[in-house]
């Protein structure tokens, strides 16, 4: 039973190691997207449904393996599929991949780490269980932490699967849509021969907007705490 419990995690770790050993992350870059844009666009035009399915599957794998290519894939979705389809496919792939990682982490070592982590994590788990949805919504809206960290933390803190999936899907909509819109305009940028970097995408204005939305997601928690103290 113990081996079966850890088997998904073992397979996941092996897959991550294999992906990096094969250098797959090197192909998921803006330069690779620019260089292969014509071929990718032609394939999408001729096989839109199949291309969409492949894109979702690739996005799922990237998120589940915690490869640092989510933003590039989202931009690629906007470039190849346009908006809103690029955003919809990216949200679907990211949500499935995040859910897979959540389930593996929770089933393999969630209880073990909670039992051995001591009172600090226990107190966090208690707070997270009370306002888990809004906490996770905030973490999804504000890109202050790596996506894989936000995927794992709720699993270790005892969050239930259904609110995790819903908060994940809702929380990534704003950022994913914005990146898809940016990606939809990449074709013209590439045609002009201009350099594009992730720093230009993650500009201060965008980050400020996402932080603002994240703070709004914490408003119900603040109101609830204020009411509790007022009673």
Please, could you describe this protein's structure?
With 231 residues, the protein is mainly alpha-helical. It has one domain (2-230). Helix content is 82%, strand content 0%. The protein contains 14 helices and no strands. The longest helix is centred in the middle third of the chain and has 32 residues, at 85-116.
Describe the protein's topology.
Layout: H1 2-21, H2 30-35, H3 37-46, H4 48-64, H5 70-81, H6 85-116, H7 119-141, H8 147-156, H9 161-171, H10 173-184, H11 186-191, H12 198-201, H13 204-217, H14 219-230
Helix pairs in contact: 1-6, 3-4, 4-5, 4-6, 5-6, 5-10, 6-8, 6-9, 6-10, 7-8, 7-9, 7-13
Secondary-structure element sequence? Answer: HHHHHHHHHHHHHH
Low-confidence spans: none
What would you call the structural class?
mainly alpha
Number of self-contained structural domains: 1
Strand % is under 5%
**Total helical segments:** 14
Specify the helix fraction band: over 70%
Largest beta-sheet characterization: none
Number of strands: 0
How would you briefly describe this protein structure?
With 231 residues, this protein is mainly α. Helix content is 82%, strand content 0%.
Keywords, separated by commas or semicolons:
mainly alpha, globular, single chain, 82% helix
């Amino acid at each position: 039973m113990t081996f079966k419990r850890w088997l998904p995690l073992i397979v996941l770790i092996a897959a991550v190691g294999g992906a990096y050993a094969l250098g797959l992350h090197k192909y998921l870059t803006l330069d690779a997207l620019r260089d292969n844009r014509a071929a990718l666009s032609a394939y999408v035009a001729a096989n839109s449904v199949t291309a969409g399915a492949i894109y979702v599957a690739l996005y799922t794998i990237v998120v589940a393996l915690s490869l640092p290519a989510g933003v590039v894939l989202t931009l690629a979705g906007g470039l190849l599929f346009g908006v809103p389809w690029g955003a919809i496919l990216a949200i679907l792939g990211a949500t499935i991949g995040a859910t897979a990682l959540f389930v593996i982490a929770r089933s393999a070592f969630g209880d073990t780490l909670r039992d051995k982590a001591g009172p600090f994590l226990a107190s966090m788990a208690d707070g997270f269980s009370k306002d888990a949805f809004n906490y996770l919504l905030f973490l999804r809206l504000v890109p202050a932490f790596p996506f894989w960290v936000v995927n794992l933390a709720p699993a270790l803190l005892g969050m239930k699967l259904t609110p995790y999936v819903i908060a994940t899907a809702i929380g990534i909509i704003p950022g994913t849509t914005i990146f898809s819109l940016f990606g939809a305009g990449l074709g013209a940028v590439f045609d002009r021969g201009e350099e594009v970097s992730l720093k230009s995408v993650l500009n201060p204005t965008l980050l400020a907007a996402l932080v603002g939305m994240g703070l709004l997601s914490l408003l119900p928690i603040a109101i609830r705490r204020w009411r509790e103290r007022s009673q």
